[in-house]
Protein 1
Amino acid sequence: MEGWKNKVTLVTGAGSGIGKYVAEQFAKGSASVVPSNIDEKAGSYYPVDGRMIWLFTY
């Protein structure tokens, strides 16, 4: 997923599985990522690198 610089992505279900993988790939491609998940504990393993801001939905 190259060429995502200056792009913002919202990834739902990013706490695990496919959603987690997709969020990580966008971040590796230089996108700013807003991962979203219903489980707040699932997001605690992501390092804060300035490109991921967690959004939890209840």
Protein 2
Amino acid sequence: MNKWPDLNLRRYTHILVNIDQSAIFVQSGHIISVMDPGRHRIDPEELPILGVLAAEFCGGDYYRAALYFVPNYPLQKYDSVEGSETSPIR
């Protein structure tokens, strides 16, 4: 997981979401929006909820939200070693 380095996202910034990731916008601990893989422009047409927040809090030039790039592939689970459940430890 990677995080955008700044909480202020300039309006009309282009972001590139890799094929194996999703971009998640978080504000005050709540997920505001999720973007699928591809090239996106951060603007009110693509993210209407961010447009409202920008106009209300930042004068319309910046969006204030944390942006995380999260992998969307299944993570491997390492909770058991193969064969350890059936054979006793001696």
Protein 3
Amino acid sequence: MRQMFARLAAVAFAGLAASAALADESEGKIVRIDPETATISLSDGNDYAFPLDFYIDDLQPGMTVRVFFDVENGKKVLYDLQVEN
């Protein structure tokens, strides 16, 4: 029983480490927000997809933001965004 618990704990830890390795962040100015395609384009030249329930009403082109994202199927998907001063 103890060995099984140790194996499960090791597998869980490996999964967490792998998912953390996929997370990334970037900073730039918002160039374009497209609600139709659920994407934000930044001055870093990248487009970031956002979930449909992501609140974007207060965001405007020209704002400097830091985005936190995962890469899923080659697509950068936001999970957090912070407006920088």
Protein 4
Amino acid sequence: MSSFGPVIALSNLSNNLNQTLASAERVISLLEEAPVVKENTSGQKLYPKVENIYTENLSFAYEGEPVLNDLTIGFPEGRIIGIHGPSGCGKSTLLKLLMRFWDADSGSVRMIANETDPTTLEKEKADSQEEKADSSKKDGNTDSKENTVSENKISANNKAGNKTPSDNKSTSGNGSKSDTTTAEPESADDTPKEPEPPKPMSAIEMLKAMQAAEKEKIRVQKERENAFLEKSRALARQKEEARKKAAVEAEKIEKQKRMTLKERIDSLLPNAEDKERSKDIKEVRTKSLRSLEAYVTQDTYIFHDTIAANIKVAKPSATMEEVEDAAKKASLHEFIMSLPDGYNTKVGELGDTLSGGERQRIGIARAFLNDADIVLLDEPTSNLDSLNEGIILKSLKETAGDKTIIIVSHRDSTMAVADNVYSFE
């Protein structure tokens, strides 16, 4: 019986050894795996603002199965662009190509953005203004010194005996001062006089006063009438301007309706002059490219940490005010504040203590916090109810400004917020 334990251990050695070797093989293969897309660490740097990102004759296939074929579409700044279509038509694939998670088989993704750091330009401008201020200050000091010197010279001349004509009059030839006349004292009778009673107005004066009062009344009446007329004219002008603006918008909508599909697509692409400034994202430094983009995937990855830390993944240096503002835009703040520890509430591994909609809203909050020029949203409201969807879409509309927001969704309600919609087949 003493050898029973070692024999059992020896018999199980082969199974444990095989499992250990298989695990080690998987780890080694993972470490030796080459990335599908090699990061560009020495290419062109791009900075905000991004004016346009567009595809040019883009084609891509999964293991020989075509997904995108000769695609040329644009995403200009200041627009919310929707991408709608059935599953498997390449909507999510296009977002990954814009992020350069993969490279296109043919064609290219191009971007128009600043090639110089705007913060550097602002610093140079501030330095230039400081130099000008210092120069003007030096000139002012020089002028003041010259004025001081001239004043000192004048003072020295006066001390040397240059007398004014008044001085000559005040002294006599033998050096004695001339006599001065003294004012006679005023009368001692300083008692106040009683006011005289007003003289009665004559008939003519009364008539003139009445006529003046009547003229003033007429003047005030005319001023009121003129003010009313001016207000009426201003209101009429506002109505006319609103009517013209509505007519222009209606004409614009009608023109868009008359536009062919190709014309609509071309209207979102940059012109030939701007295309010359564009860069293929393969030539752009990967870190620089990703700093200009925020990507919300269908599945939000949650770490075993606090809610605040999970939101800060998008911007580790963010303040709590920025985190709370992003959470409010993502319709998440009220839920977080209802928790016992608020933003310091720990979430489980992979966010197992949160619902699918709550995890999704954390991902959207990250996008708001990142504040990138290009925001890519892949089915951002698929797990949300109508109320939270409406709040998030309203926030997207308000923060669009000069950003480019691209939304992939099956929901018609989500597509309603888009300025333009591409329909994939």
